């Protein structure tokens, strides 16, 4: 069974006084367990809209098509239910949560997942050992775990903190929305190593990026080109290299 099955997905975004604006115009995409798919495309193609619709972010309206996650109609689930069911979105611009310590946030999130699965809350000592072990692997300093979520964090620290959240929550489906945005090479390698450590036979990933450089470190099984709300070409990792050398002009023309 496919982990994520998207069929002919159409969606609009609320554009204020202008009304609904069509963004996704017939997306079809299937991710099987164990696969990493990359979505590339120019600005305004609909890449972030795709991740936001899958995760259930408010402000978007699905006007056609279906999204099935692990055999269940994902569009019928609220955003928090999707998260408890094992879906994780890493934001392009992670939000700050003043007043909530990173460690407290992680423990609360883990216990929400465990409760949804009918499991008891994690023991405090077990949580602490797990958090510190994962934080060490990802280069997350102990003082970051005590600070409010993302408050005062650098761009690299925010992305490391998100990968730490993934490592702790062990989601079935990871959506990485331009997680390379604003990262230098060293931070990119740390984040990519953390993501690669989460690759597993029962886990799928959708990596959204502008640039091929991220895919040097997180090597995808399939690459999709998204232009004007449609997937206009799919291929293996060599397609990303082609995009790096030729750009998107050929595909934006194909989408027109």
UniProtKB/TrEMBL annotation:
This is Fe-S cluster assembly ATPase SufC. It comes from Roseospira marina. InterPro entries: ABC_transporter-like_ATP-bd (IPR003439), ABC_transporter-like_CS (IPR017871), FeS-cluster_ATPase_SufC (IPR010230), P-loop_NTPase (IPR027417). Residues 4-253 form the ABC transporter domain. The gene is sufC. It holds the Pfam family ABC_tran. Keywords: ATP-binding, Nucleotide-binding. Belongs to the ABC transporter superfamily. Ycf16 family. GO terms for molecular function: ATP binding; ATP hydrolysis activity. SUPFAM superfamilies: P-loop containing nucleoside triphosphate hydrolases (SSF52540). PROSITE patterns: ABC_TRANSPORTER_1 (PS00211), ABC_TRANSPORTER_2 (PS50893). It comes from the Bacteria.
């Amino acid at each position: 069974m496919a982990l994520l099955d998207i069929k002919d997905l159409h969606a609009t975004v609320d554009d204020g006084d202008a009304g609904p604006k069509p963004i996704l115009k017939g997306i079809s995409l299937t991710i099987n367990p164990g696969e990493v798919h990359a979505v590339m495309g120019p600005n305004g193609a609909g890449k972030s809209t795709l991740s936001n619709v899958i995760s259930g972010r408010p402000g978007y309206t699905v006007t056609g098509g279906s999204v099935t996650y692990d055999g269940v109609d994902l569009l019928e689930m609220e955003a928090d239910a999707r998260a408890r069911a094992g879906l994780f979105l890493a934001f392009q611009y992670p939000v700050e949560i003043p007043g909530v310590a990173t460690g407290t946030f992680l423990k609360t999130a883990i216990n929400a997942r465990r409760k949804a699965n009918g499991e008891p809350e994690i023991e405090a000592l077990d949580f602490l050992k797990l958090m510190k072990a994962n934080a060490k692997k990802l280069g997350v300093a102990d003082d970051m775990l005590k600070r409010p979520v993302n408050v005062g964090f650098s761009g690299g620290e925010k992305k490391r903190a998100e990968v730490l959240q993934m490592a702790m929550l062990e989601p079935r489906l990871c959506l990485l929305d331009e997680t390379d945005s604003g990262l230098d090479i060293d931070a990119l390698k740390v984040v990519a190593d953390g993501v690669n450590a989460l690759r597993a036979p029962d886990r799928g990933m959708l990596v959204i990026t502008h640039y091929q450089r991220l895919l040097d470190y997180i090597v995808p099984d399939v690459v999709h080109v998204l232009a004007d709300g449609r997937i206009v070409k799919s291929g293996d990792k060599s397609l990303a290299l082609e995009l790096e050398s030729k750009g998107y002009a050929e595909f934006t023309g194909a989408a027109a």
